[in-house]
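Record type: monomer structure entry
Structure origin: computed from sequence
Chain ID: A
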Amino acid sequence: MPNLIPLLIGLFLLAALLRIDTYFSLVYLLAAVYLLGRAWSRQSMRQLLTERRLINRAFPGEQIQVELRVSNEGWLPVPWVEMHDSLPVDLISPPYYRRVITLMPHQEQTFEYTLSCNKRGYYVIGPMIWRTGDLLGFTPQEAGHQQSEYIIVYPRVVSLESLGLPTRSPLAQLPAPAPLFEDPTRVTGVREYQVGDSPRRIHWTASASAGQLLVKRYQPAIARETMIFLDLNQASYSIQRMVAASELAIVTAASLANHIVLREGLAVGLTTQGIDPLQEEQIRTLCLPPRRERAHLMGILEILARVETYGQRPETKSPSEKVSPTDKPRQPMPAEGEDLDLIDLVRRDSTQLSWGGTAILITGQETPELYDALLYLRQQGLAVALILVMPAPPDPEGRAHAAALGLRVHHVWREEEIRLV
């Protein structure tokens, strides 16, 4: 009741004018209740402790249990506490969680709610705001908040039995005459220990039999490296299928990266350009060089979870509406030095691949410039693969370019067709 102070002043003036003791008693009683309630509310806010617990990583189809804990750490009871947690509409409906409780001294209460992860993305949870006040509502409410957290829902991953990617190497591991790399899983023999050899290479059984230190000799090999170039420019996809096509392109990239790392045990990288919510909604170029660790794979999936398409589509207006310059939607601006198209990214980041590696381009549109970039990669000693996601009707000129390069173009219209790549 924010107008209680003017009311007290008015009652006091009225009591002084009429000189009625009952009015003075009423003023003193209301003033005492107001001051006591205000002090109680402030103390209640100081002794309240809240906590939110959750696992902030999930795949589509999974559910996340969120636990809210609120406790009264003081000796005074808290008459009422209202908790309000703001939630993304894509994870729960209605997009909030609200509870009103009473806490006795040193009492703790725990509540849970479930978030359904049906769509990949980067979601902000909170802030959680709680309010408290006196029992009669005479004093202004005291409010506090808890810091927001985030949830990353990874893109869907389609399980692949095999991957028919081209490579300049006939096998995933190509024997090489020069020891560029060595495969520690393939021991070809032993040799005498030399100064500088790692103790991990010592063959202890053979050393004990020979009476001298012997180290393992590994088969030299060249490991296939793969770089995935993902096109998220809205202009590369049909306007009628832009959302579905771009999401399917992301699922394709995630499935390929997952298979290469987990099933083949080879290195894979990712280059894409899009709107990153972690970078102030600017258009950013995101590049991860090829590596083979599982932690690296999770980094790729995290980028694919939060990145969004960029570009500007013309808005359709009725003939009666006039198009004003101020009606144009505000588009995110690229960060400094980030205004590159897919062709520029392919030419720049293909240098991350060693000779004999494979470059996979995932887009929704084939153009002469795209085939020129593929020819450039071929000339650099790389194998190339082109995956068109929900493309426009085939272009005879594009087919001619692909035939001239000896390139097999893969078309993906549904998630089931990713298994055929």
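Annotation 1: The chain has three domains: 46-153, 182-221, 225-310+332-420.
Annotation 2: The radius of gyration is 33 Å.
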